[in-house]
Amino acid sequence: AMPMAVMVGTGLGARHGILIKNASALEEATKLNVVIFDKTGTLTMGEPRVVAVVPADGVTTDELLTLAASAEQSSEHPLARAILERAKNLPLTRPEGFRNHDGMGAVATIGGQRVLIGNRKLMESENVGIGELGDRARELQGAGRTVVHVARGNALVGLIAIADAPRPTSKATIARLHERGVQVAMLTGDNRGTAERVAAELGIDIVLADVLPGQKADKVRELQAQGKKVGMVGDGVNDAPALTQADVGFAIGAGTDVAMESADVVLMKSDPLDVVKAIEISRATYRKMH
Ligand code: ADP
Ligand code: MG
């Protein structure tokens, strides 16, 4: 049977919209020395929007947006939704073929031509040179934007810069974890330039960037191998293995069902600060018991 204090602790959590699924998670949460946050949708709002469109020489803004949005019609990625929103008044073409490249982007065939859309790694793997737009891409990433590259055949046709604002409480969450002696890491499939900028803004200690979906759990394991007790906070399908691997997995309630099933704790209000609250409740619970 659950000790009385544990029932009180889980009940207190529930009243704050913090669903602690098992008693061992409550105890493990007292010992965490590092908490890893997924970037997109966890530390950020997960509501990306297009903030700059940079066509290559000889390409118009509308041409670039039409091509990008046509390709992204078959994608469910949040970045695809932002591009479609920006192109909503343009006539789109249905892609004849579409294939996701996990953690990098997608390839589509449009009007008989091969279109690539995604990050720099995707362009490199398909031998598309970035050329003179490279400086602009780095500048946008340095400002915390995610840069989507668009190529037709082997030629880059332009860049689309996307911003996703941090959640209002993200910065305070990190400060309060520091006050409690907990280190904070950020895990993302996004590129290092963008990730470093967002991390600096929020006060993150460890930046794990350019991580493919299949490698997220490995990153948790690596920190555990250094003797750390690791909490992981995420929202997406590809966060699920990392949430399971962590000593305590926290799912953002507004995220996917898969993430919620894999987590030990569900944050119903989707507020990162509730990670701090959960740790406080767990510490208070076990102080009473010992
Ligand atoms: P996250 O950690 O934010 O969930 P993902 O693993 O989904 O990241 O994607 C990693 C990177 O791959 C994105 O930052 C983006 O640059 C690129 N990418 C993935 N899917 C797409 C897409 N459909 N369109 C454009 N870019 C994409
Ligand atoms: Mg995410």
What is the level 1 CATH name of the largest domain?
Answer: Alpha Beta
User: In the CATH scheme, what's the topology name of the largest domain?
Assistant: Rossmann fold
Specify the number of helices. Answer: 13
Q: Order of strands in the sheet with the most strands?
A: 1-13-12-11-2-9-10
Order of helices and strands: HEHEHEHHEEEHHEEHEHEHEHEHEH
Strand content: 15-25%
Supply the CATH architecture of the largest domain. Answer: 3-Layer(aba) Sandwich
**Cα-to-Cα separation, first versus last residue:** 18 Å
Oligomer: single chain
Number of domains: 2
- Arithmetic mean pLDDT: 95
The rough form would be described as elongated
Main beta-sheet strand count, sense and barrel state? 7 strands, mixed
Helical/strand content category: alpha/beta
CATH H level of the largest domain: which superfamily? HAD superfamily/HAD-like
List ligands, each type once: adenosine-5'-diphosphate, magnesium ion
Number of strands: 13
Q: Round the Cα radius of gyration to an integer and report it.
A: 21 Å
Level of helix content? 40-55%
